[in-house]
């Protein structure tokens, strides 16, 4: 499914967080949103999924204007802060969220075990969430986002607190999903993860200052290093520490 963000602007209490954002994300692409803390990445994800309205502009998914209740079922959203039921087990959380997405029982049973194995929680599925570590909560949140096999994944810093081996496993799975034609948008501060994406959009002061393939973006940096993307200057394309 294709995501089109058209001239989106958003302010909170007169503070403009996003200004005139235009971005197209095609099926079978992994795109990452890069930018300093507070640059509006989460806000953009929430506008894409229709959780909050834009002040101006809008988002179309497969040509339909968001928010759209039917399209919501095609989206898996992983928030930065876990939205889990602490007094339920991981398995029951998964079951609950699968129910909300109207996943059939047989399909749930088939998917749940596979997804738990990808996030490395097969042996911990009966533990209550309140007894989970931070990283485990992150992993089960990712499983929740995946449980209804959505066509679009919006993942807000999905691998924070997850060890490198599992992180690799999760990225291999995301790349498999991409090959199946899923559309994936990820926010991250982890440079290794940027390299796993096809494209990146750099957010600065509420604007997209660059949006291109990862290879082209790296070529445009002074020393060809991915870290330098964070220091690119809006106007000159040169290094800036401002
Ligand atoms: N509901 C809200 N009410 C008021 N201000 C908000 C709200 N949501 C976000 N903001 C503000 O909008 C700005 C962008 O926040 P956002 O969470 O989108 O940034 P971010 O790039 O995702 O940051 P981080 O990398 O730290 O997660 C911040 O200044 C934040 O305080």
UniProtKB/TrEMBL annotation:
InterPro entries noted in UniProt: AAA+_ATPase, ABC_transporter-like_ATP-bd, ABC_transporter-like_CS, P-loop_NTPase
Domain ABC transporter: 3-230
Key word Nucleotide-binding present: yes
Superkingdom as given in the UniProt entry: Bacteria
Keywords carried by this UniProt record: ATP-binding, Nucleotide-binding
Pfam families: ABC_tran (PF00005)
Gene3D superfamilies the record matches: P-loop containing nucleotide triphosphate hydrolases
Gene Ontology molecular function: any one: ATP hydrolysis activity
PANTHER family given in the database record: ABC TRANSPORTER G FAMILY MEMBER 20 ISOFORM X1, ATP-BINDING CASSETTE, SUB-FAMILY H, MEMBER 1
Protein name from the UniProt record: ATP-binding cassette domain-containing protein
Source organism per UniProt: Anaerocolumna sedimenticola
């Amino acid at each position: 499914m294709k995501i089109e963000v058209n001239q989106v602007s958003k302010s909170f209490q007169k503070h403009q967080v996003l200004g005139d954002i235009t971005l197209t994300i095609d099926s079978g692409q992994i795109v990452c949103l890069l930018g300093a803390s507070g640059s509006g990445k989460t806000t953009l994800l929430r506008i894409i999924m229709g959780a909050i309205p834009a002040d101006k502009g809008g988002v179309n998914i497969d040509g339909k204007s968001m928010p759209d209740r039917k399209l919501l079922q095609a989206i898996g959203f992983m928030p930065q802060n876990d939205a889990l039921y602490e007094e339920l087990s991981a398995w029951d959380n998964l079951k609950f969220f699968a129910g909300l997405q109207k996943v059939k029982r047989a399909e749930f049973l088939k998917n749940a075990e596979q997804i738990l194995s990808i996030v490395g929680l097969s042996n911990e599925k009966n533990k209550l969430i309140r007894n989970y570590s931070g990283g485990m909560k992150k992993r089960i949140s990712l499983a929740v986002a995946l449980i209804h096999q959505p066509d679009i994944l919006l993942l807000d810093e999905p691998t924070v607190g997850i060890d490198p081996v599992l992180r690799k496993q999760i990225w291999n799975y995301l790349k498999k999903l991409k090959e199946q034609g899923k559309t994936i948008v990820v926010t991250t501060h982890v440079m290794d993860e940027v390299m796993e994406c096809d494209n990146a959009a750099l957010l600065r002061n509420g604007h997209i200052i660059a949006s291109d393939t990862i290879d082209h973006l790296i070529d445009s940096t002074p020393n060809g290093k991915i870290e330098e993307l964070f220091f690119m200057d809006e106007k000159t394309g040169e290094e800036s520490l401002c």
